[in-house]
Description:
Chain A is mainly beta. Chain A contains 2 helices and 13 strands; from the N terminus they run E-E-H-E-E-E-E-E-E-E-E-E-E-E-H. In chain A, strand 3 and strand 4 (about 60-70) form a beta hairpin. Chain B has 7 helices and 19 strands. Chain B is globular.
Amino acid sequence: MSYQPRGTGEFATAFGSLASYVKGDIELINDDPKNYAFSNVFAVAASSAPYEKVVVAKNRQYVIEALRAEGTSEWFAASHDEFAIVMDGRVEIELVKLDFPATIVPPDVEGSVMLEGPPVGRNMGFLRLRRGHQALLPPRAAYRFRATAGIGVIVLQTILGRHSVQKWSAICPS
Amino acid sequence: MVGDMPQLSEVDVAASAPNEAGYRCFSLGSFTFSRDEYFAHVEWVSKGTKLSHTMSADVFLRALMRDVAWGFFYGTVNFDDVFGTRNRYGRVEFFAGCYHPTYKSQGLDHLETFDSGLAMQTCKAILHDWTNTGYDPFAAPMETGLTWIGKKLGHNTAAINRARDACRRMPGLPGDLPLRTDRNRYPVNRAFLDVPQDEPEIHAAPGFEGEVHAFNLFAYLSRSDVTWNPSVSSVCKHSLFCPTTEEYILPVKHANDRIEWFLQLSDQIEWHIEDGETGLPRANITMRPGDVAAMPADIRHQGFARKRAMLLVWENADPELPRLHEQGAVPRTPAEEFWPAPRPPKK
Lengths: 174, 347
């Protein structure tokens, strides 16, 4: 973990990365560690397949997913806003406004949906993100990620969907 | 108007003349609140007996500041082990000893429910009167003065009237919350001078300028001028990302009425976890960058950060959740949901 002083001022801010992270811990006094579903997004991404949407937090239907950004992802879309935060690496996001969104992401379908092929629609543009940058993934727009400098880590604010992967016993102490 | 508190109505807020230290005494129902040079005193009547509780005035003011800023927040805001508030969304409970095993077992716990508007008016009046010039209850101790100590000395209206930064969708979008810059009086905090301030590259095709959007969340947080006061930086239906910067001690012990989650973005925070009803210790959690942990719906938590840290608090703002939790219709902990107990075999 980057706890070594990096800044030139009085304080050095410590961020994590795939190459340098140290998980925290739980001291149990009278409890079960499963109550906290404790994990680490870098540890999860380190052992994930590229762009596997691993759920690291869930509150009813809402989730936070940790994605290992490696190479180029499939195309995804959602019927609602999603937000991506780059926790490590550099990521480019392409956006396409779908011509027929209801055929892919009808309003009653929540979570990210993987497209079966390239999106049909208008080019919206693209974003280039680094660590700490947050992007809007607007509704009814197809998007795909591309890691542009090695392997990165993305945190996604979304809703549980058909491609979300829950493997709590594998990522949390028990 | 109440004395020198022009925005408050004397019809609503019950306040005395200044005491010998210069501070007013306030009452709300049977609760009375007074302060002197060092301490805040809360008094109430239980079983016909007048009871009192004393806290350091700065501890009380920092807790009250969060209660006001959060609109009584989600669930229970324990100022300490004895006194606090519980949000009933439109109504609010003020309690003493209700979540303390000894007060409870002796029948000395006390709870009154108020209209949230009246209670908020009273809390704001106390903050206004008891916060001296030079003291900022939102700031870390290294950033503010010791003028909370001593006799009354002016006010700090600007500090206690900060609006909470809550976006509708995402900061920087047209019509939404502006990004923080030097120009709009959000300088980079002294503890985050090394945080890169570069903004993402946005290449929007013509016609999509308002829809293709990104910003530097870490830079945004590095410019936060408050501690332990979550903003809202993205909204997905009821899912709210509420990042915040934390330094020193969370001034309250928060017992949420729903599960919430923490994602540590930078540095380190230690959390003391206690049982939500009794205050008995359950666990200590150390969170480092990238760590994710749930805060179950049956605990109270208090955080400690020796260096200003970025924390992403994740809330589900579904207004049905408190009712569902009270009915036992939803899991109180991730353990109940993700590792359900096996059902006994059918005979």
